[in-house]
Amino acid sequence: MNHPPIALTIAGSDPGGGAGLQADLTTFTRLGVHGATAVTAITVQDTRNVVGFTVLPPEQLRAQIEVTLTDLEVAAIKVGMLGSVDNVTAVSTLLAAHPHIPVVLDPVMVAGGGGALATEAVVDATREALLPRATLITPNGPEAARLARTDDATQWGQQLRERGAANVLVTGGHAGSGDEAIINRLYREDGHMRAFELPRQPTGFHGSGCTLAAAIAAFLARGRDLEPAVIEAQAFMNDAVARGYAPGHGQHVPNRLCPHDA
Fold first, then answer.
1. Whose CA is closest to 209, among 126, 106, 129, 62?
2. What is the pTM assigned to this prediction?
């Protein structure tokens, strides 16, 4: 029986559905991809902020990933919040055993409302162990600065590629304000950089980074090359944000259910 392409998300759970696994699965479904999951952490959060989280043991995370990769023909992997150094190590080891599967790493460090989701030790482990395993990493400005160990935005792409990242998409939503356009910069493994200009929405969003990374993974699972996948995913995310809504008392979330011609 024919089935849609399969993407695996390795991420934390958001009970409000704005980010994390729930955002990834909605994105996969909208883009015609079957979503598989490996839960890394149970968070207590709403659209305003993170109250707390509990990280699953690496043995449980490893078992989820192994059984999924054994049973399903996974065509792309999206990695989000991992929560502990042990989980970073476990995921890195498993990715090394499946180098043929493209990996989109969204190095989640802070929730949309400002709550911390990664200690400095997790950031260090991500830099050393996970960057070399990823096909593409999608940090926002603050995440790129921490991973590259510099506040000089002109150095982020080069520094992250020197630390092992094959391709880097630095998103620009945290830079600028008002009516200024968002500039995302794709630093490719061939040394070229391409900038993309996106309109800025007037409200803050919860889950936009998850949506973008999951959409890129979905398009990779569907067979797109990297740059076309990035372009189509940005278009999807831009549509979702433009039609976003506030389901709770805090930030808006992207409308990942909006129609999209893909």
1. 106
2. 0.94
